[in-house]
Amino acid sequence: MGKVTVFNHPLIQHKLAIVRDKYTNTKTFRENVNEIGSLVTYEITRDLETKEIEVETPISKTKAIVLAKDVVIVPILRAGLGMVDGIQNVIPTAKIGHVGMYRDEETLKPIMYYAKFPKEITDATVLAVDPMLATGNSAIAAINEIKKTGAKDIRFVGLVGCPEGIEALQKAHKDVDIYIISIDEKLNEKGYIVPGLGDCGDRLFGTK
Ligand code: URA
Fold it and tell me: Of 24, 89, 107, 139, whose CB has the highest number of CB atoms within 10 Å?
C-alpha cells in the first residue's frame, strides 16, 4: 500500500489558510499554491537517488553530490498547472509532461483529452500533480496513463485530499505514495471536498 504523507509544517499550513479563504484573490491564490508546491517538493524528494561527481571549485577539485535520475512533473490539467512553477523552481532540471482531464459533472468520471510525456522516463521519478484529491478518479486515470510509459517511481502530489479519494487512489495504485498537506472531512454530493478550497482550477485561472 502506498504511504500517505501529510505535511503540517507551520509555513505550509499558514499558506493553506490563505488558499482556503474565499476572499483571497486570484493572484494571491496562485502565488500561494505555487509556494506550497516549492515547499512540499523538499519533502517529496528527500529520498531521491544521488550520485557522486567531481567538480572543480575556484580552489581545488572536490567530490559533489547530484541527482542520479530525472524528475518529471506531470500536472493533471488544469488545476495541476498551478503547482508546476513552484516545483520546477526547486528542481530546474525537471522535465514536464501533461495529462488533460476534465470531469463529467454528472457522472464525476474523468474524461481524458490530452497526454504527452517526455521520452524515456522509465527510470525517472514522476510527480503526478493535482491540488485536489477528491474522488480520486482523475488521479487514478492520469497515473494509468503515466504507467503506460513504463515509469515505475510515481508519486502523487496534491494540496487537499479527503478519505474517499485517498482510499480510491491507494486501492487502484498500491505502488504510488501520496503527498498532501491536509486530509479534509469528506466529499459532498457534487464531488467537492468539504471544507476544501472550492474549485481550484477556477480560483487559479479566474474563470468564475
Ligand atoms: N476539484 C476541485 O477543484 N475542488 C474540489 O473540491 C474537488 C475537485
Answer: 139
Q: Can you read off the three cell numbers belonging to residue 195?
A: 471544507
Q: Which of 193, 194, 203 to mutate to test the pocket of ligand 1 (most atoms within 8 A of CB)?
A: 193
The cell for 157 is: 502530489
Q: What is the pLDDT of residue 103?
A: 74
Sign of the CA dihedral 8, 138, 18, 96?
positive
> Is residue 105's pLDDT more than 80?
no
Pocket of ligand 1 (CB under 6 A): 79, 132, 134, 191-193, 196, 199-201
For residue 198, the number of C-alpha atoms closer than 13 Å in the C-beta half-sphere is 18
- Note every long-range contact of 186-189, with CB atoms under 8 Å and residues 24 or more positions apart, other chains counting: 186/162, 187/134, 187/135, 187/162
pTM score of the predicted model: 0.94
CA max distance for the chain: 65
